[in-house]
């Protein structure tokens, strides 16, 4: 298995996959081998079919988990082992379209006000004001902040893409105050102890604590700050194409989901619905008492 794993890792590197994708795909093949207690090159096509039925019917695996298993196992057999089995094309993983949780501007301020630690508060402010992903934020270095041009350089974002994001003046001032106080180096948000950067889980726990204290009845997460950034820009009339580039989305269709979440969209919808049923008001009281409702 070690030799097969090494070959698979090399194949994924040649395909330009990120370290996260490589780890996920390799773990999927490892899970398949562990299930049958044998090397994956000795597993049959029928057994792969059985394995995915097991994941769906017994493990009740989430759609996202199934996709990682499918893509990882498919890559291993088709690319590394050169086995173009029909079953690998039969298996499908339906992607669930989940609506993002968006916070209002007041809710964002309320949560940030409850975060006391400068490291966490500055990180959350940067995520909201620049639309960054959590993983992109924790990996930022001090050298990625261009104060003169007011830009943030996001290196190796999702899909292995670099991009520049405008930095609002107030956020820049907050960063300068934070830097003068903490003098972080080289990472903008260093780990509490030891080398490296702050962990995503640390920021996630801090956000969850602040959300609980705020009594905001939404299942929000750190990523909701990014969703709120996009939605609030749309409400202010910023072009969807610009927001797409700021978020680092590959496809415009990924960004269009926010067009359905703005307050203006809901207000227009409510107005249209009220107009729709306006003529029905005259029908009130004309029905007989004791009807179905």
Task: Describe the structure in your own words.
- This protein is 56% helix and 3% strand.
- The chain is mainly alpha-helical.
- The protein has 2 domains: 2-90, Orthogonal Bundle (DNA polymerase, domain 1), CATH 1.10.150.130; 105-263, Intergrase catalytic core (hpI Integrase, Chain A, Orthogonal Bundle).
- It has a 3-stranded antiparallel sheet, with no helix packed on it.
- Helix 7 (118-130) packs across helix 11 (223-235).
- The radius of gyration is 25 Å and the shape is globular.
Instruction: Indicate the structural class.
Output: mainly alpha
**Terminal-residue CA separation:** 67 Å
Secondary structure tally, helices: 14
Number of separate structural domains: 2
Reported for the largest beta sheet, the result is: 3 strands, antiparallel
* CATH architecture annotation of the largest domain: Orthogonal Bundle
- CATH fold-level label of the largest domain: hpI Integrase, Chain A
In what range is the share of β-strand residues? under 5%
Radius of gyration over C-alpha positions, nearest whole angstrom: 25 Å
How does the overall form come out from the CA principal axes? globular
What would the average pLDDT be, to the nearest integer?
88
Going across the major beta sheet, what is the strand order? 1-2-3
Helix content: 55-70%
Going by CATH, the homologous superfamily of the largest domain would be: Intergrase catalytic core
* CATH class descriptor of the largest domain: Mainly Alpha
Unreliable stretches (pLDDT < 50, length at least 5) are none
Question: H/E element string?
Answer: HHHHHHHHEEEHHHHHH
